Amino acid sequence: MPVTDEAIEKIKAMIVSGELGPGDRLPKEADLAERLGLSRSSLREAVKALSLIRVLDVRQGDGTYVTSLEPALLLDTLGFVVDFHRDDTVPSFLEVRRILEPAATAMAALAMSDAEIVALREVLDGLGAEPTVEALVAHDLDFHRRIAAGSGNPVLRSLLESLSAPAARARIWHGLTWEGAARRIREQHRAIYDAIASRQPEVARAWATVHIAGVEEWWRTTPGSADGVLSPTESNEPGRP
């Protein structure tokens, strides 16, 4: 095992065992290196690597601390990695959404507060009669993020948030090429909202599945979508859903 990897594993073991907890300060570099049987250079590399993935927080002039280790913080790195997806992997991301998002929607039907449901209704009502593609995408992202947050599960919320970048790109092409996209999205969002507002988790799950499966089917069957670029002749109404 490379010495840096060994150093990472040893620091990880200290955190997993509970010896170091969220917010704790690491011992001084010289002391920690001697204690773990590591060189100071390999320890520095390990600390640098763990800070990049938000496990450690290096504060200049103060020391190195374990972060809060909250899911949203740790999974933020996943979103960074997801941004490097290739267009031919979009179907895989959509499949993951089809698995996770209906579950989050069903949970939201039980967990969302009345105030959160009212706010979701305001998002739904805020979409104009003839939205631009950009407005439609922003609306769609906001609608689904609120539902993910309303699931009450921070890990599920963070995972869905991490999938937003590729999903957003797919939604843009979806809006450009799917005739009547704004109307269909509005109708499906309304059905999802109604199921959540009436506290019907399985109905909410079913509508979320239909909604996401529609985007997935569009991606698989629309010429040019796998390349991530659609020519004007392939678009029903360029610039407008």
Automatic annotation (TrEMBL):
Query: Which of UniProt's keywords are assigned here?
Result: DNA-binding, Transcription, Transcription regulation
Q: Which PROSITE patterns match?
A: HTH_GNTR
Judging by the UniProt lineage, the source's domain of life is Bacteria
UniProt-listed Pfam families: FCD, GntR
Domain spans labelled HTH gntR-type:
1-69
What is the protein named? FadR/GntR family transcriptional regulator
The organism is Pseudonocardia hispaniensis
Q: Which residues cross the membrane?
A: none
